[in-house]
Every structure is written in C-alpha cells, then in structure tokens.
C-alpha cells in the first residue's frame, strides 16, 4: 500500500494520527465525463465522446468501488465496447499490481497509469480507473461518476433502455446515496481502519444504525428508491456482498451479520441473482485481498475459511412488492 508524491511512489500506510485515529478518505482527482457527443459533463473538461473501443476500465474484483463499474458495464451491455483489465488481489508494497503487463499501457502497477496521465500526480493510486486510449489519459477515477456515465453515455450505440438513474427519482436517489456512502460504503472502512477505540466505536455504531434503518425500509419496499432497481441499490449491494465474508471479521463490524437481517439478506440475494451480476462477484479475490493486504490489521495474512454463504437460495422479494 502506498501513495504517489510528485509522481514518485512511496510505500506507506494510511496516516490517521492527524485525525484522531479516524480514517479520512480523499476526494478522487480525475473528474472528466464521457458523454454521447463529447460535450463537457458536470465537472472536468470535454472531449471524451462515447466511442466503441476507445475506453478501457481498470478494476480490482476485490474492490467494492470498482465492483460498481463492473456491474454497470455488464447490465448496460458495454462489454464489447469498453475493455477491462483487472489487478491481482493482493495490494502490497507496489500497490495494485497486474499479473502481466496490461495490454493497453504495458503497466505492471496501477500507480504507473496515474503517472502516465499526470507525471507530477500526488495522491493514492486507486481503482477503478476509466482510461482514454485516444488522449492517453484518465477520464475519471471516481466510481460514482463512472457508473453515471455508463448508465447513459452509450445508449445510442447499445440500444440499452434500462435506466438506473431515472430523472423522476434522482432527488431521492441522491439522498439515499449520501446516507449509505458515509455510513455503510465508507462506514465499514472507517470502522476497520480506525486506530483508536473511540473512532472505531463511532464508526461501527453508524454502520449498524444505518443497516437497521435499511432493514426497516426494505421490509415494506422491494428496492431502496421507487419501485425499481436504481443505482442506489447497486451502490449498497457491493458493500453488502462483502459484509459477512470480510467486514464482520476483518473490519470488526460484528454487531450483526447481513444473514441476521431477513430483509437485507433476501434483498442482497435478489440483486446477486439478477442476470450477469454473479459473474462480477469473485469471493476468493475479495477475501484474499482484504485479509492478505492489510498487515496492520491482520499481520499473519491468514484468510478465514468461512462463512458458508448461500447466495442462490430463493429471495421471495416479489412478496414485498405485492404487500406494498
Ligand atoms: N472514491 C473512489 C475510491 C476508490 C478506492 O478507494 N479504491 C480502493 C480499493 S477498494 C483503492 O484502490 N485503494 C488504494 C489505496 O488507497 O491506496 C471511488 O469510489 O472510485
């Protein structure tokens, strides 16, 4: 695990000393948008028009943020239009590492892609990255924005009609996202990376207060927002699917398991069972990454054997829709 300082790689762990033992996530740096005609998006600069074969996605199957982009690539029919390269599960002294030089840039490490895009880049070398092969740069390294681009930029090329960010639900989706991002998606990291008891207790309480609230919400509605699957559901899903296998034990989020929540667990299974989604879930990569990459949390690197998860059991979520 490391960080780039003026384009140079330094092997160092997160600094939590200046924040009272609290893990504080940094903002993503590359914020351009792919759009149907190359017009500028809500941030960054224009010139990134949707074209088949032009863009490449770098991911880790272990990473919940990258996982969102893999799900959208799959569900929006973008697999033939946007290539993907994945790193190996362990993130050690060189950060994210490719098993062999990546076919687009010949990189051995993800940090080299950041330096190629910006030779004086300072910051973390995170996945996902959306790379533009034409301008030889990073379009975006912010998953929440990459999934919005995937949701609509290529629709005229793919003919996809599914919309995970429909205009009539946007306000509510954003409200739900905001809560889930801070308390659940990033909440588990705040719990796991805390280095004081107080910071941990604060974070773990927030995780479970929010899961309790979501359990209640999903007891009377099938999906988080409206009566259909939206990006809010996919953003929650990538944290839920890692929860019992990793966050309960490795990040000490052990007040309850997702399995202990009847509605949340059935909801998670429904999403897992959506066509194509199971192929984006690599539980071995997930477990190997977390337990093996964070030596400050798990010095032996031993990967726990369990838990046994039955993700293909019937979910019966259609009953909730009928009751509502
Ligand atoms: N805000 C970013 C966060 C991405 C992120 O933190 N990815 C993690 C993997 S789960 C990473 O690459 N970490 C490497 C590091 O922090 O050095 C996003 O959502 O795209």
Task: Describe the protein in words.
The structure is a single chain. With 324 residues, the chain is an alpha+beta fold. It has 2 domains: 2-158, Glutaredoxin (3-Layer(aba) Sandwich); 167-274 and 308-323, Glutathione S-transferase Yfyf (Class Pi), Chain A, domain 2 (Up-down Bundle). Helix content is 39%, strand content 8%. The strands form 2 sheets. A 4-stranded mixed beta sheet has the order 4-3-5-6, with helices on both faces. It has a two-stranded antiparallel ribbon with strand order 1-2. The radius of gyration is 19 Å and the shape is globular. The N and C termini lie far apart (47 Å). 41% of the residues are buried. The protein binds glutathione. The site of glutathione (GSH) has 14 residues, from helix 3.
List the helices and strands and how they pair.
Elements: E1 2-5, E2 8-11, E3 55-59, H1 64-75, E4 83-86, H2 110-117, E5 129-132, E6 137-140, H3 143-152, H4 155-158, H5 170-185, H6 187-193, H7 197-220, H8 231-247, H9 262-272, H10 283-293, H11 318-323
Parallel strand pairs: 3-4
Antiparallel strand pairs: 1-2, 3-5, 5-6
Helix pairs in contact: 1-3, 1-8, 5-7, 5-8, 6-7, 7-9, 8-9
């Amino acid at each position: 695990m490391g960080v780039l300082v003026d384009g140079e790689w330094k092997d160092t762990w997160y600094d939590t000393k200046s924040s009272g033992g609290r893990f504080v996530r940094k903002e993503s740096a590359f914020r351009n948008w792919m759009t149907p005609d190359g017009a500028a998006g809500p941030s960054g600069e224009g010139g990134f028009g949707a074209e088949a074969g032009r863009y490449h996605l770098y991911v880790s199957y272990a990473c919940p943020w990258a996982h969102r982009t893999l799900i959208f690539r799959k569900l929006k029919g973008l697999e033939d239009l946007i290539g993907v390269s994945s790193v190996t599960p362990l993130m050690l002294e060189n950060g994210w590492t490719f098993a062999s030089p990546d076919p687009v840039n010949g990189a051995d490490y993800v940090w080299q892609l950041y330096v190629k895009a910006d030779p004086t880049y300072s910051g973390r070398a995170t996945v996902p990255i959306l790379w533009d092969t034409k301008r030889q740069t990073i379009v975006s390294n912010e998953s929440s924005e990459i999934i919005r681009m995937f949701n609509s930029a290529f629709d005229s090329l793919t003919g996809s009609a599914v919309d995970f960010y429909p205009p009539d639900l946007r306000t509510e989706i954003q409200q739900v996202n905001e809560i889930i991002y801070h308390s659940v998606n990033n909440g588990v990291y705040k719990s796991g990376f805390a280095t004081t008891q107080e910071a941990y207790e604060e974070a773990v309480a927030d995780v479970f207060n929010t899961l309790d609230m979501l359990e209640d919400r999903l007891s009377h509605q099938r999906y988080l927002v409206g009566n259909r699957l939206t990006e809010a559901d996919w953003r929650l899903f990538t944290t839920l699917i890692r929860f019992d296998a990793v966050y309960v034990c490795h990040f000490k989020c052990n007040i309850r398991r997702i399995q202990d929540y009847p509605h949340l667990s059935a909801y998670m299974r429904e999403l897992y069972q959506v066509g194509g989604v199971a192929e984006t879930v690599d539980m071995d990569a997930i477990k190997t990454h977390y337990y093996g990459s964070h030596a400050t949390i798990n010095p032996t690197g031993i990967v726990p054997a369990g838990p046994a998860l039955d993700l293909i059991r019937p979910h019966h979520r259609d009953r909730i829709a009928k009751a509502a």
